[in-house]
Amino acid sequence: MDPFTAGLVLICFLALLGLPIGLSMITGSILYLWMRGQDMGLVAERLLNSMFTGYVILAVPLFILAAELMNSGSMTDRLLRFCNAFVGRFRGGLAQVNIVQSVIFSGMSGSAFADAAGTGRIIANMMTRNGLYTRSFAAALTASSAVIGPIIPPSIPMVLYALVSNASIGFLFLAGILPGLLMALMLMTLVVVQSRRLNFPVETPVPIRELPGITLGAFPALLMPVVLLGGIYSGAMTPTEAAAVAAAYALLVSSLLYRSISLGQLYRALTSGARSSASIGMLIAGALVFNYVVTAENIPQKLSIYLTGWDLTPLQFLLLVNVVLLLIGALLEGTAILLIIVPVFIPTATALGIDPVHFGVVAVVNIMIGLITPPYGLLIFIMQSITGAPLRHLIRDLIPFIIALLVALMIITVFPDFVLWLPRQFGYQG
């Protein structure tokens, strides 16, 4: 067995045994270097150099901390009341609130898991209270709307894609806005159809006179995306500095303005954020080491030559990437796909003249849909755990939402100008 195949087999074997994928990749890389007769200290050198020089990686734990602080304080509750006041009055209103809150909360956390476990948990409980909606439908909708979070900026997956592709984080963030809104529109349209077919309940309308007070109460939380994006695109902050500002802003608003976070809650937010960051950090470290192995074997270049021989058009290549990523996304964790699989396709995409920002958005949307695709989809199991919905019923209710998101993916794939229009308004030359 050649060294690369042996390392790959070891990674798969250890992952199947339950070892974290990051550690599995480091172990497989060490085996590869040993069989090649190379210095195994290259693993430590590659890991340390990549992590210490990867300034952009700092944005990941900071965005995670911002989401934890928002969930610990009352910012999420105020956002939910704001959403409910405006769209909760329609048939299936709570279902629409679920989607709208994901769009708003996505501008602060950058994580689908933070959305699902934070505001998603709250709205799912509201939907199932008194039997208004089935647990499986509430769980399916919450999981589906949570995937919007990493598309609309800020976005942790976009940061990771920038790490492996050298694309501009700022333009990636801008490019995600319209696709994210399109995904939300597709889900809301489906809810309207289902509301009539299944006769969903109508919520008690919030009196008009209360709207100014509710809006004022949520205004500091709603201002957070404006502060972040304004700072980035005005040149005042880098995306990493914006992540730090997001965490600081969430802490200041929750503690000083809303006075809704205690020292105990702050400690739990810090420890929870640290655990999540360590988990992602180990995965990034393993991927960076394994990417050295992939590069040493010239896998991206070999794949590029192989696919070029197929004489694919850019659209055909993107459709092929969609199929591959959707299939892999049903089996593997999204961050691992973004750090290991996607970089292999980047040279081919570049050779075919595909814009790196457009390709990044297409890749991230694919990976996010993978989070709700059976059998592995992590969001499926998170929402099943939160709601207690039978897994069979949850997957059944997920299928229409997955189809709606796939339609949005096709539009994003076929019409690159739709994705790139907003970055071009801010000077992007792609």
Question: Can you walk through the features of this model?
Answer:
The chain has one domain (3-425). The relative contact order is 0.15. The protein is globular. The chain has 430 residues and is an all-alpha fold. The two termini are 43 Å apart. Helices cover 78% and strands 0% of the residues.
Mean pLDDT level:
81
- What is the string of helix and strand elements? HHHHHHHHHHHHHHHHHHHHH
What's the total count of β strands? 0
Number of helices: 21
Structural class: mainly alpha
Largest sheet: none
Query: What is the helical fraction, as a range of percent?
Result: over 70%
Overall structural domain count = 1
Distance between the termini: 43 Å
Q: How much β-strand is present in the residues?
A: under 5%
Low-pLDDT ranges: none
The whole-angstrom Rg is 22 Å
List the helices and strands and how they pair.
Blueprint (H helix, E strand, L loop, with lengths): L2 H14 L4 H16 L4 H13 L5 H14 L2 H13 L5 H17 L2 H6 L1 H10 L6 H12 L9 H10 L3 H30 L12 H23 L5 H19 L5 H34 L2 H10 L5 H16 L4 H18 L4 H15 L7 H10 L3 H24 L1 H10 L5
Helix pairs in contact: 1-2, 2-14, 3-14, 4-13, 4-14, 5-6, 5-12, 6-8, 6-9, 6-11, 8-9, 9-19, 9-20, 10-17, 10-18, 11-18, 11-20, 11-21, 12-13, 14-17, 15-17, 16-17, 16-18, 17-18, 18-20
What is this structure, in a nutshell?
The protein has 430 residues and is an all-alpha fold. The protein has 21 helices and no strands.
Keywords, please?
21 helices, mainly alpha, 430 residues, globular, single chain, 78% helix
